[in-house]
Each structure stands twice: as C-alpha cells, then as structure tokens.
Amino acid sequence: MTTALGRTAVPTGTGPARPAGSGARAAVRVELLVDRRWFGVCDADLLTPGRGVAALLPDGRQVAVFLDRGGIAYAIGNQDPFTGAYVLSRGLLGRTAEGLPFVASPLLKQRFDLRTGQCLDDEAVAVAAYATRVA
C-alpha cells in the first residue's frame, strides 16, 4: 500500500505474501531509490516497528532505515551532521505536534524529518533522504 507521501506501508501482523501453491515464503523487501535505481536493503520482516537499522549502499554511503509503528518505511543518511558520528539509525522515532515523523539523534537530540532529512531544530542543516518502497 502506498501512502500519500509516496511511502509504502508494510502490512503489519499479516506477514509476507506466499506464492500460490508453493509453500515457500516470498520475501517482501525494503528498497531505496539510489541514483535513479531501486536498491534492495533488507527483508521487511527483519525491521522492528519503531526502531532503525544501518545499511551500507554500494557506493559506501551509510543509510538509516526505519519502520514506523504505522508500518511505513523511511530512509535517511546515517551520519549525524552535528557530531560526524554514524548514529541516526540508533535514534528515537517520534512525531511532531503537526504529525511530522522524525528521528532524534541519540547524541545531541536534534530531530530530523524522516520524509525530507531536514533538521527540525536548525533549518540550515539536513541529511539525505531516500524514497522507499516495500516490494
């Protein structure tokens, strides 16, 4: 299911679909749009809602991949621009009063919009944000 923000919700509680008549489980993958191509990061069932994981892209960049409690996948750069540490995947997920999803850096607690990468506490700072889909 694709949301209005272009994100894809992971069906929660239902597990991945199975091909008809096969007994084998079809993998539901989280993919990121990297350099105009979809890149598979991991199986969606390996993500814990409300938590993040770090992933390495083919060009060596690190991304932080999140699955929110509503089943929507997000991905932003993993490097905290305030400290230089690769830690955003370990941050706390939340929503602003306006409903914007964010991750708070585990070090200095700056919040980053999961849709755009924009720092909510310093408008001059942002991290890369990636389109995601679950396929």
UniProtKB/TrEMBL annotation:
PANTHER family xref list: NITRITE REDUCTASE (NADH) SMALL SUBUNIT, PTHR40562
Keyword terms, alphabetized: Nitrate assimilation, Oxidoreductase
Record PROSITE patterns: NIRD
Gene giving rise to this polypeptide: nirD
Source species taxonomy: Bacteria, Bacillati, Actinomycetota, Actinomycetes, Kitasatosporales
Cross-referenced Gene3D superfamilies: Rieske [2Fe-2S] iron-sulphur domain (2.102.10.10)
Compositionally biased intervals (Low complexity): 8-22
Name this polypeptide is given: Nitrite reductase small subunit NirD
Domain of life: Bacteria
Rieske-like [2Fe-2S] domain sequence ranges: 38-134
NCBIfam families per record: nirD_assim_sml
Region (Disordered): 1-22
